[in-house]
């Protein structure tokens, strides 16, 4: 019988709340475990006073939870978190370690991989686990036109960061799992702590997070000005949705900020409705919207590549279409 594969998911938490991406990665780990038939999913949670959070993790797919509850781990810090995780990994020797590709995950994962002397595939959009324990880590390359398959054949653990918004969490209401309380003192020594974070300042961007919106009205370079951009904002408001953008629109400063950019270096979104205007359909952008429900695009160039991916194509100047659409929606509402 093949050796049992152990898949670790490092849980990110802020103020005792599990990051959405960690639950998404747990969901994917469950799927991998089911595919490999003989695998165990282990969640690893670091923080301070996070017992209640750890108790919830089996409901999201963890067979077992390692909980390191220590006041020194209240706020994420690269040196403290990597020290604790390195010691745990060296002791437990998991086969696979998965981390969400959030701002802190993107820092923590390469630090850990370097300390452990193993490889890391960053920003994966899919994973496969074979029964022999080989993890295939899939990463879009050349703007999503090619999917690279990355392997870590020799070193262990096999490590990957996972792009947020790609996988769905699982909810297994009645499920329980083993919670292993670790002793922080034996995993982290005060002498190793070079920096101390004293407080956390959370700056939430205004408006609905683009990953959660059912409707996204997205604009690109073709929108032409900040003034025209307001039309997209008004439309998104009528739909109770969010505004997304391409890289050129972000660079022009028309948009709400980096958090609204969609694509290979931005967000992956899955709205029920994506309405794109003045967007050509470059692969870098399209890779972020490919799982949307209905795609409607407005482009004055009837050969624009975005039309190949759209359910409804409007070959027209957006200035002739969107104001009328806005007016009709408002009329219908009132
Ligand atoms: C490494 C790398 C990573 C990248 N990552 C991303 C990413 O994550 N997300 C992203 O979006 N881009 C990304 N890019 C940029 C990407 O390659 C494209 O350049 C970009 O997506 C194009 O944006 P756009 O469609 O707004 O502009 P354009 O390609 O210039 O298209 C503008 C479109 O607007 C249409 N148009 C013009 N006027 C009107 C009008 N009045 N009415 C209707 N239509 C009109 C035109 O016909 C045209 O099709 C990346 C690039 C690189 C090199």
Q: Assign the structural class, choosing from mainly alpha, mainly beta, alpha/beta, alpha+beta, or little secondary structure.
A: alpha/beta
Mean pLDDT: 94
CATH superfamily of the largest domain: HUPs
Stretches with pLDDT under 50, minimum 5 residues: none
Would you give the CATH topology of the largest domain? Answer: Rossmann fold
Strand proportion, as a percent range, falls in 25-35%
Query: Quick one: how many beta strands?
Result: 17
Overview in brief:
The chain has helices at about 20-35, 50-55, 80-90, 105-115, 185, 225-240, 245-250, 285, 320-334; strands at about 5-10, 15, 15-20, 40-45, 65-70, 95-100, 120-125, 125-130, 135-140, 145-150, 160, 180, 215-220, 240-245, 275, 295-300, 310-315. It has about 325 residues and is an alpha/beta fold. Helix 3 crosses helix 4.
């Amino acid at each position: 019988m093949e050796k049992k594969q152990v898949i670790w998911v490092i849980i990110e938490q802020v103020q005792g709340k599990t990051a959405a991406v960690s639950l998404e990665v747990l969901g994917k780990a469950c799927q991998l475990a089911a595919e490999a038939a003989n695998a165990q999913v282990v969640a690893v949670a670091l923080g301070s006073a996070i017992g209640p959070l750890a108790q919830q993790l089996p409901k999201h797919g963890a067979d077992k939870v390692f909980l390191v509850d220590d006041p020194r781990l209240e706020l994420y810090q690269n040196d403290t978190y990597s020290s604790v995780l390195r010691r745990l990994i060296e002791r437990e020797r998991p086969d696979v370690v998965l981390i969400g590709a959030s701002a802190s995950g993107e820092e923590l994962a390469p630090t850990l991989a370097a300390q452990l002397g193993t490889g890391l595939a960053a920003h994966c959009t899919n994973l496969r686990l074979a029964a022999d324990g080989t993890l295939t880590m899939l990463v879009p390359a050349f703007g999503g036109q090619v999917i690279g398959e990355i392997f870590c054949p020799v070193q262990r653990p096999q490590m990957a960061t996972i792009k947020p918004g790609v996988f769905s969490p699982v909810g297994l209401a009645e499920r329980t799992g083993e919670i292993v309380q670790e002793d922080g003192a034996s995993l982290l020594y005060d002498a190793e702590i070079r920096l101390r974070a004293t407080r956390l300042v959370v700056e939430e961007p205004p408006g609905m997070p683009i990953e959660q919106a059912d409707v996204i009205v997205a604009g690109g370079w073709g929108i032409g000005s900040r003034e025209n951009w307001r039309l997209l904002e008004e439309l998104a408001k009528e739909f109770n949705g969010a505004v997304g953008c391409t890289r050129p629109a972000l660079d022009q400063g028309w948009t709400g900020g980096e958090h609204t950019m969609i694509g290979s270096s931005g967000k992956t979104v899955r709205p029920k409705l994506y309405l794109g205007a003045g967007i050509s359909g470059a692969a870098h952008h399209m890779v972020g919207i490919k799982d949307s429900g209905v795609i409607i695009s407005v482009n004055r160039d009837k050969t624009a590549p975005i039309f190949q991916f759209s359910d409804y194509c409007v070959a027209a100047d957006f200035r002739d279409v969107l104001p009328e659409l806005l007016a009709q929606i408002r009329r219908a509402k009132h």
